[in-house]
Design brief:
The protein is α+β, with helices and mostly antiparallel strands. The protein has three domains: 41 residues; 220 residues, no CATH class; 157 residues, no CATH class. Helix content is 43%, strand content 22%. It is built from twelve helices and 14 strands. The protein has an eight-stranded antiparallel sheet with strand order 2-1-9-10-11-12-5-6. Strands 4-7-13-14-3-8 form a six-stranded antiparallel sheet. Helix 4 packs antiparallel against helix 5, helix 6 packs across helix 7 and helix 10 crosses helix 11.
C-alpha cells in the first residue's frame, strides 16, 4: 500500500510540474506574440523639424517685394485665408495635376534665368472648390496653422525649408491683384539641385487665378522629401473668403498692413544704400549683357522688371534661344535708332518687340505652344488669330493705344459665332476686370445680346456725360 501511495504521489507531482511548465510556455509565447505585434504596429509620424517662414509684402510672386503703396485697410478688397500644412509619409494619388492650370513656369539656376522644363513642379497636384480632401491612407502629422489677411496688391509667402539642407525648400505664394479683379493667384516655387554638383535650381509654377466671391477651399499636394525624416509630401489645405468688417478680420488686416509697411521700408532702405539698386544704374550693364548668350536671358529678365515690361519678361522666361535672339535684336535696333525718354515708353518698346516676334512666328505657322499661351494671356482671343496682333502693333504707337484696341477687339469677339472664341474673350476680359455684367458666353443668343446691349447703352450714357451732355 505504501508503495502504491508513493507512486500515486509521484505521478501527481509530475502532472503538476508538467502543467506548470505548459503554463509558463504559454505565458512566454503570449508575451512574445504581444511584443512582436507591438513592434510591428506603425509608430505615429513625426512632423519634420522644418523651418517655416512667413512674409507679407507689396508686389507679386514674380516681382518680389516692392515699395508700391497698398491700401491694407480696404476690407472690401481684401481676402482672409486660413492655411494648414500637414506632413504625409507617402505621396497619395489625390487632387488634380496642375499641368492644365499652369499660366507660367519660371526657372533660375544660381543667379541665371534659364529655360524652364517643369521637372521640379510637374508632380504638384491641386484642387479648388472641393469641400473635402479625399481620404488619405498612411500616417500624417500637423506642421503649422496660419490665419492671415491678404490686401489687394499684396503677396503672402509661406516658405518651408529643410534645416539639414537650406537650399532644399518650397515656397507657397498667394497674391491678389491691386484691383481685386484678377482673383487669387497661387504660385509654388521649389528649390533643389537638379544633379550632383549643379547650382541650385529654383522653379516656380504660377497657376490660373481663382475667383473668390465666397468661402473657397483650395488644396495643394507638394511631393517633398525632408532629410532624415519619413515625410514624403506636404498637403496644404486652405480656406479663402472675402474679408468682412468684423473685429477679427480688422485685426488680421492691421497685422498685414504692419508687415507690408515694414517690407516697403526695408526695400526703400536697400535701394538707398546700394548704388546698383538706384533706377537705371544697372541699365547699361544689363544692355551689354544681352550681347553674351550666357547672360542674355538673365539680362533681359532684369531689364523687363526695371522698365515694367511684363510681356517681354514672360517671353524671356519661356521663349527658346532663337526667339530670344530675335527679341534682343529688335530691342537693340530700336534703341540704336532713337532715344527713348520715359520709362513707360521704354517698357512698351520691350513689350512690343516681344509681341512682334511672336506675331511673326505665328504668321509663319512656327509659333510654339508656350508663346501662343503668352499671346492669349496678354491679348485674349486676339492672340488666337494669325495676323491680328501684328495688325494692331502696326496701327498703334503706345501701350495705351494698343491696350484700348485689344480691349475693343475682345468685346467684339463676344458676338462671335464660335463658342470657344466667346469663352476665351470673356475670360480675358474678366481677368482684366472688364467683364460684361450678366454676359454668359454659352447662353442663348438673345440673352447674350441683351447683356451686350446694356453694356453699349451704359457706354453711350457715359460718353454723353463726359462730353457735357452733347449727344
Amino acid at each position: 500500500m505504501r508503495r502504491i501511495a508513493k507512486l500515486t504521489w509521484a505521478r501527481d507531482i509530475n502532472w503538476a510540474a508538467m502543467r506548470f511548465n505548459l503554463l509558463s510556455v504559454s505565458v512566454v509565447l503570449a508575451l512574445v506574440l504581444f511584443c512582436g505585434c507591438a513592434s510591428r504596429r506603425p509608430q505615429p509620424l513625426q512632423a519634420p523639424l522644418a523651418t517655416i517662414d512667413r512674409s507679407t509684402f507689396s508686389g507679386s510672386a514674380l516681382s518680389g517685394p516692392t515699395t508700391k503703396p497698398v491700401n491694407a485697410q480696404a476690407s472690401d478688397q481684401a481676402l482672409i485665408a486660413s492655411v494648414d500644412l500637414v506632413a504625409l509619409d507617402n505621396v497619395p494619388a489625390i487632387l488634380n495635376p496642375i499641368a492644365s492650370d499652369v499660366r507660367l513656369i519660371a526657372s533660375t539656376r544660381g543667379e541665371d534665368v534659364i529655360q524652364s522644363n517643369g521637372e521640379l513642379t510637374q508632380p504638384l497636384r491641386w484642387s479648388v472648390g472641393d469641400t473635402s480632401v479625399p481620404q488619405i491612407k498612411g500616417r500624417s502629422a500637423a506642421m503649422s496653422h496660419d490665419d492671415f489677411a491678404l490686401p489687394a496688391g499684396a503677396c503672402k509667402t509661406v516658405s518651408v525649408i529643410d534645416p539639414q539642407r537650406i537650399d532644399h525648400r518650397f515656397d507657397i505664394l498667394l497674391q491678389q491683384s491691386a484691383t481685386n479683379a484678377g482673383g487669387l493667384v497661387v504660385a509654388i516655387a521649389i528649390s533643389d539641385h537638379m544633379s550632383a554638383g549643379d547650382k541650385r535650381t529654383r522653379e516656380m509654377a504660377v497657376l490660373k487665378p481663382v475667383k473668390i466671391s465666397q468661402a473657397t477651399p483650395i488644396a495643394l499636394l507638394i511631393p517633398f522629401q525632408f532629410s532624415k525624416t519619413e515625410t514624403r509630401s506636404v498637403l496644404m489645405t486652405m480656406n479663402v473668403r472675402p474679408a468682412t468688417s468684423k473685429a477679427e478680420d480688422a485685426k488680421l488686416l492691421a497685422d498685414a498692413s504692419a508687415a507690408i509697411d515694414k517690407s516697403r521700408s526695408m526695400v526703400a532702405s536697400a535701394a538707398k544704400s546700394s548704388p546698383g539698386a538706384q533706377p537705371w544704374s544697372g541699365y547699361d550693364i544689363a544692355m551689354r549683357a544681352l550681347d553674351d548668350p550666357a547672360s542674355r536671358r538673365a539680362g533681359l529678365a532684369f531689364l523687363c522688371r526695371r522698365v515694367h515690361a511684363p510681356i517681354c519678361e514672360d517671353f524671356a522666361l519661356v521663349g527658346d534661344d532663337a526667339a530670344l535672339d530675335a527679341v534682343v535684336s529688335k530691342i537693340k535696333n530700336a534703341t540704336n535708332k532713337s532715344t527713348i525718354a520715359t520709362s513707360d515708353a521704354l517698357g512698351w518698346m520691350f513689350d512690343s518687340s516681344a509681341l512682334g516676334v511672336a506675331a511673326d512666328l505665328q504668321s509663319q505657322d512656327k509659333l510654339p505652344p508656350e508663346l501662343l499661351a503668352l499671346l492669349i494671356r496678354h491679348t485674349g482671343q486676339v492672340g488666337m488669330n494669325s495676323g491680328s496682333v501684328a495688325e494692331l502693333l502696326g496701327a498703334t504707337k503706345s501701350r495705351k493705344e494698343f491696350d484700348a484696341r485689344v480691349l475693343a477687339e475682345n468685346l467684339i469677339y463676344l458676338e462671335d459665332s464660335s463658342p470657344a472664341a466667346r469663352v476665351r474673350a470673356s475670360d480675358w476680359l474678366a481677368a482684366q476686370g472688364k467683364s460684361v455684367a450678366g454676359y454668359d458666353p454659352l447662353a442663348p443668343p438673345r440673352q447674350r445680346q441683351d447683356a451686350l446691349q446694356k453694356m453699349y447703352d451704359t457706354m453711350s450714357t457715359q460718353a454723353v456725360a463726359r462730353d457735357g451732355g452733347r449727344p
